[in-house]
Design the sequence.
């Protein structure tokens, strides 16, 4: 009976993913923490693997290193702009190479997570011409209450629209977890290249709340902000800062 139930769940999960919009872009991520004292060996092994398997845009991987919080020192590796058909490609040789040549330097890993990019919460990033990755990322994870997802999504969509109109210069992307974690987990990533630059919008002399209320109606800011805060689980907001690792990123390696 357990095997039957597991099989049904597996088939159902595969069916759900296969029915996803073929025009949407999906992103994969992994986290790896090297063994103590083996950071150099880990990076060298990953770089060698990438030169063998990840040199083209289709197979490219970008690597960031977490520099704040309890996960400082952990590497996050990201594959961008994947489509459902890409998951049919046989990459077993790449996985086997990792297991044989890289995994011995890994203390812990997260396993693959898959994400659906939310178009309405994307700012200053073009899927047709994404450009180089940002040097720094601020990654905020939100665990959202199942009954409050629409409140969360509405606020993020509206904030993105207003910040874009105000001329914010940093990059923003938002993702919804579709596999490997809670379906109510969202990640907002903000990217920039210099800490000293001012990325705030300069297209409006109004306060933020004024522009928001002008767009969505009097009192909308207070109501939407409160609904947004109420939509997040008590433990459900975590922010980490990351730095790009060019030597472990496709198109930037030596």
Sequence:
């Amino acid at each position: 009976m357990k095997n039957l139930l597991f099989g049904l769940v597996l088939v159902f999960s595969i069916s759900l993913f296969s029915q996803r919009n073929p025009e949407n872009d999906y992103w994969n991520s992994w986290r790896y923490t090297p063994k103590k004292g083996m950071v150099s060996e880990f990076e060298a092994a990953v770089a060698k693997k990438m030169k063998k398997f990840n040199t083209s845009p289709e197979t490219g991987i970008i690597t960031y290193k977490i520099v704040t919080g309890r996960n400082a020192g952990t590497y996050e590796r990201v594959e961008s702009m994947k489509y459902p058909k890409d998951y049919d490609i046989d990459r077993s040789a790449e996985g086997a190479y990792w297991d044989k040549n890289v995994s011995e330097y890994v203390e812990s890993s997260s396993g693959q997570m898959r994400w659906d990019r939310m178009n309405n919460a994307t700012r200053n990033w073009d899927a047709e011409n994404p450009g180089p990755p940002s040097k720094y990322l601020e990654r905020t994870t939100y665990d959202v209450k199942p009954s409050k997802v629409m409140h969360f999504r509405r606020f993020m969509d509206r904030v993105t629209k207003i910040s874009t109109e105000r001329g914010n210069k940093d990059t923003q992307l938002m993702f919804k977890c579709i596999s490997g974690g809670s379906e109510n987990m969202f990640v907002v990533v903000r990217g920039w290249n210099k800490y000293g630059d001012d990325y705030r919008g300069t297209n409006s002399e109004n306060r933020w709340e004024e522009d928001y209320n002008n767009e969505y109606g009097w009192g909308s800011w207070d109501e939407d902000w409160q609904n947004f805060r109420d939509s997040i689980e008590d433990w459900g907001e975590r922010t980490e800062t990351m730095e790009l690792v060019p030597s472990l990123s496709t198109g930037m390696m030596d």
